[in-house]
Input
Amino acid sequence: MHDVKQIRADAAAFDAAMARRKLAAVSGTILALDTERRAALTVLQDHQSRRNALAKEVGQGRRTGIDTSALEAEATALRAEMEALEGRASALEAEAHLALAKLPNILDADVPDGDDEHANVELKRWGTPREFTFFPKQHFELGEQLGMMDFELAAKLAGARFTVLRGGLARLERALGQFMLDLHTNEHGYTEHAVPYLVNDAAVFGTNQLPKFAEDLFRTTDGRWLIPTAEVPLTNMVAGEILPEASLPRRVTALTDCFRSEAGAAGRDTRGMMRQHQFRKVELVSIVHPDSSDAEHERMTFCAERVLELLELPYRRMLLCSGDTGPSSTKTFDLEVWLPGQGAFREISSCSNVRAFQARRMNARFRGGADGKTVSFVNTLNGSGVAVGRALIAVMENWQQADGAVTVPPVLRPYLGGIETIVR
Output
């Protein structure tokens, strides 16, 4: 969400920022609505002053026996005009608010321009892809060969883009989630939460899924929404709050199922577990002082990278270009893990700095400053730490053996009772 005062202060700069998002100039429309609203409020204030004066004149006239019918008629007419002005001002404010709510965040200056993922910039690479003495299989081939990944049964139960895991793979997925939670809470300073999977309109508006991206979500018959990520409940925990500056930063995490309609994903990753309607993810959320958000972005990304390094999975960090950066984010780092079965790097984590964009929508603030009384918006950040299903895919493909068995990474073995290999 943007501050109309900032748009008013430099409309050309705002339009230039939106142009990087491939949007036409919008400041004129928003400022016209705001100007008309402020003009209506000015007239409303003048009318209120005149009504106050008339009330005094009518009172004085009645006490002295003067005819006040004309004054009373003027007051009645003013009241009708004021009601109309209040309605108009309210409608203009709602229209401007909706227009602002649909706009994306302003990108950081160091985000490269580009239309899509082909313009993303590789910043680092960790690990060396394993050299196989056999042709590596994709995860769904391994899973079906093990008899532990069942897409037909999932389709019978729920339809396409669902998976049933059983046996060793179900246990391995559970181990991955527990390992990530333990790492982030014990070593990275995040506080674990168990959060609702159903949220209200205000929550999905606060993190910018509404109003523009409703088609990407699942909605229940009673008007609530299934969470697309734990970012929604975790971030909204500070909605409407004024936090003490000393309580920042706040770092929270949760392992949840996530639900997405995958609108627009027809024909993409139709086989396997890469793109599902339901998947599991460990989410990282930070609520920080604005001065700390850049450093926190690096810190959060490191936390996600540490997961992949401990699992011994080769990856690269990508800085997303303007055309590939999500609408809420000012800057996003994607971590892409190497999948030998596909012979490609694929996204497994996305860590974004949102700055005050969500905080304005949620009215999430902190009190601090030199006087200890200044109220300002917090900054929010979110990231995958990491997507559990995709981590399972990466472990299966990178740790596969020639006979189709999957070696369990050493860091996960304590979570599986010491099991070293998953076999049929």
Q: What stands out?
A: Residues 27-64 form the longest helix (38 residues). The chain has a mean pLDDT of 95. The CA atoms of residues 254 and 327 lie 23 Å apart. The first strand starts at residue 121 and ends at 126.
